UniProtKB/TrEMBL annotation, chains A, B:
Keywords assigned: DNA-binding, Transcription, Transcription regulation
Database matches in SUPFAM superfamilies: GntR ligand-binding domain-like, Winged helix' DNA-binding domain
Pfam families xrefs: FCD, GntR
InterPro entries: GntR_C, TF_FadR/GntR_C, Tscrpt_reg_HTH_GntR, WH-like_DNA-bd_sf, WH_DNA-bd_sf
UniProt domain HTH gntR-type: residue ranges: 21-88
Gene Ontology MF term list: DNA binding; DNA-binding transcription factor activity
Cleaved signal peptide residues: none
Protein name per Swiss-Prot or TrEMBL: GntR family transcriptional regulator
Species per Swiss-Prot/TrEMBL record: Neoroseomonas oryzicola
UniProt keyword DNA-binding, yes or no: yes
CDD domains to which the protein is assigned, alphabetical: WHTH_GntR
Length: 233, 233
DNA sequence: GTCCAGCATTTTGAATTCAATTTTGCCATG
DNA sequence: CATGGCAAAATTGAATTCAAAATGCTGGAC
């Protein structure tokens, strides 16, 4: 067999930031994206050779990436049998939204104490961006989701709750696939915008109790809508 | 160089259960234990060659194990620099105990609805075992910790909250090192036993509100004691 | 005496290679 | 025709090998 050249990541420019820090991280990101988008359906086998060939790397980094996806809950490992894309029990989905609601309530209470003027300005900008988006288009939906995520990320950052933030990130990944699958769960975008306005007002007032309550209900509603949407299939 | 023999795990007997399912899992477990016991202090570099040599394996499985410990929050990775044992911010410790309190409250509410007669019997047995343990000895302390863990695990299992259980396992690992370091945080073992009795009574009555409250305070107290103990250094 | 530069060594990153298990397809048998 | 077993192929598991980057050390210059 011919000696294949020593393949490496494209050398990043000194200041370049988009290059990945390691091949496993690169592989994990691509796989994660494919799983969340539904390109690789739940239950599918993740053959190491396949993945490696598709991404132009060898198997060892793929193994490391799969190991990481396993601890993230996106893949399941069976010894000597390989990795499969994890399926999620509806009960687990409901529980994840419960956890998110619990965390968001606590985050709201903390954020009301620590928010800065810059936080308020940034959050206002996100709301304005969401209100300005067109209603029916797919790109509009994607952009809305992005701003929505940034809105909640900002509140979370202001709260200083780092561990909760980390866990929320992992949990969000686990349910993201079903959110995309569940179609427009933001059927009442106007209501979401109203709730965001209320949330911002409570944050400005420093009313932690009210903010926590609003956030909890906000997340709870989203979860209830998703579960209802999934049940209809 | 002489060709080293192809090293493998000791072949498990057909029915043997103690053998590990894979080398990475084996390495991860040994490393985790060493980190939690404090044998490897926070900030220490985890040299792949060292670890591999010490455990009699090669580097690839060590890399996979380190990747897993990273996502568990026990190790930190810096590209091209290697892995170091993660240090925990006191603020993170406090937050982890807050999360545990949050989860335990919710778990209590659910457990009160779903507990079976067998659960009550098993929990009673654990309490009796804890009450029968001698006070001052180190073995007594370890045994107490074990039964205490089983006590709470049983309630958690009865609640049916799988995701919370999974997350609690990871979080418990992260703070375990500091619990062992903090010495006898169970200085008031009698009080813990009393609280366990109250918890069991509320569970038997099916009083979810009260059970949740008791569990929340139970965990909160443990966290407060640990933080106080750590601050005294 | 101190600081900086260049080289050697160490350590990580990733690919190839080899062994063992599992799975699959085929053939024989009931 | 169905089922069980056997053999071959495919796939995972793990070690070795080779390349690149980071670290440390030494020597020289200021």
């Amino acid at each position: 067999m011919t000696r294949a050249p020593y393949l490496r990541l494209p050398k990043p420019r000194p200041g370049a930031q988009d290059a990945h820090e390691s091949l496993p991280a690169f592989v994990a990101e691509r796989l994660r994206e494919a799983i969340l988008a539904g390109t690789i359906p739940p239950g599918a086998l993740l053959r190491q050779e396949d993945v490696a060939g598709r991404l132009g790397v060898s198997r060892p980094p793929v193994r490391e990436a799969l190991k990481q996806l396993e601890t993230e809950g996106l893949a399941q490992y069976r010894p000597r049998r390989g990795y499969v894309v994890a399926a999620l029990d509806p009960a687990d989905i409901a529980e994840i939204f419960e956890i998110r609601a619990l965390f968001e309530e606590r985050i709201g209470q903390a954020a009301a104490l620590h928010r800065t003027e810059e936080d308020l300005v940034a959050l206002d900008a996100e709301i304005l961006a969401m209100e300005a988006l067109p209603a029916g288009t797919p790109e509009g939906g994607r952009a809305f989701g992005l701003h929505n995520r940034r809105f909640h990320d900002r509140i979370r950052a202001a709260s200083g709750m780092r561990v909760m933030g980390e866990l929320l990130g992992v949990l969000a990944n686990r349910v993201e696939r079903y959110i995309r699958l569940g179609g427009r769960l933001a059927n009442s975008r106007e209501q979401v915008n109203r709730e965001h306005r209320d949330i911002l007002a409570a944050l400005r007032d420093g009313d932690g109790q009210r903010l926590g309550l609003l956030l909890r209900l906000h997340v709870h509603d989203a979860g209830a809508r998703l579960l209802r949407s999934l049940k209809e299939r």
